[in-house]
């Protein structure tokens, strides 16, 4: 799924153990773990870069990274989703990629940036007290996937056999519908 290294960094936001190991193996020194609070990742074998995804272009120049990888991160970022993704995509060099997954907690997208909202209300609306948005299964194409103009999207169901998906512990319905396990992989056109 991920292209070979090209010398530019592959930025892994909120790194997870298993994905970190895979990305380090594939991208070596080009692998760059990153998070708003690097202190959460003492186990990562290299420095975790401090970044704030509310302002991606403050941290990355245009076309300066090979790719971004993140899992269940966008629902935590208290900023305009369109701007965050557009800025992240602007930082990706042609031929680079943006790979991510998000949770789907409702049928329709909703967000609330009022950080003073009580935790119980935020959990009710978004599924977790530190989420500012929830993605909807019925409007994800319009609200999320249309933000990848100039990118081609990989079709998981057309790319991987059911056996290969099972080997990667990806449920079959994640390849054909919107689930918390659906991997969105976009490659920026040249």
Plain-language structure description:
This protein is of the alpha/beta class. The chain has a single domain (10-104, 134-188), classed as 3-Layer(aba) Sandwich (Rossmann fold). It is built from six helices and ten strands; from the N terminus they run βαβββαβββαβαβααβ. It has a seven-stranded mixed β-sheet. Strands 6-8-7 form a three-stranded mixed β-sheet, with no helix packed on it. α2 links the parallel β4 (65-71) and β5 (92-101). The chain is globular and about 45 Å long. The mean pLDDT is 94.
Structural class label: alpha/beta
Integer-rounded radius of gyration? 16 Å
The topology string of helices and strands comes to EHEEEHEEEHEHEHHE
Number of structurally distinct domains: 1
Number of helices: 6
Name the average pLDDT.
94
What global shape is seen? Answer: globular
Task: Find the CATH superfamily.
Answer: Vaccinia Virus protein VP39
The CATH class designation is Alpha Beta
For this structure, the CATH topology is: Rossmann fold
Tally of strands: 10
* Poorly predicted runs of 5 or more residues: none
Taking the sheet with the most strands, its summary is: 7 strands, mixed
Q: What is the CATH architecture descriptor?
A: 3-Layer(aba) Sandwich
Terminus-to-terminus distance: 18 Å
Helix content: 10-25%
Which band does the percent of strand residues land in? 15-25%
* Oligomer classification: single chain
Arrangement of strands in the largest sheet? 3-2-1-4-5-10-9
């Amino acid at each position: 799924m991920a292209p070979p290294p090209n010398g530019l960094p592959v930025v892994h936001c909120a790194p997870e153990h298993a994905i970190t190991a895979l990305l380090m193996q594939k991208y070596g020194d080009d692998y760059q773990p990153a998070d708003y609070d690097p202190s959460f990742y003492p186990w990562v074998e290299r420095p975790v870069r401090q970044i704030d995804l509310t302002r991606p272009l403050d941290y990355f120049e245009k076309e300066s990274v090979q790719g971004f990888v993140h899992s269940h991160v966008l629902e935590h970022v208290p900023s305009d989703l369109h701007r965050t993704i557009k800025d992240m995509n602007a930082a990706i060099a042609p031929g680079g990629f943006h790979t991510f997954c998000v949770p789907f907690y409702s049928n329709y997208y909703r967000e609330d940036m009022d950080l003073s909202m009580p935790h119980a209300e935020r959990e009710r609306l978004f599924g977790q007290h530190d989420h500012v948005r929830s993605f909807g299964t019925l409007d994800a194409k319009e609200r999320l996937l249309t933000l990848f103009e100039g990118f081609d999207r990989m079709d998981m169901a057309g790319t991987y056999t059911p056996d290969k998906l099972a080997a990667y512990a990806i449920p079959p319905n994640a390849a054909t519908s919107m689930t918390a396990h659906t991997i969105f992989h976009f490659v920026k056109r040249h």
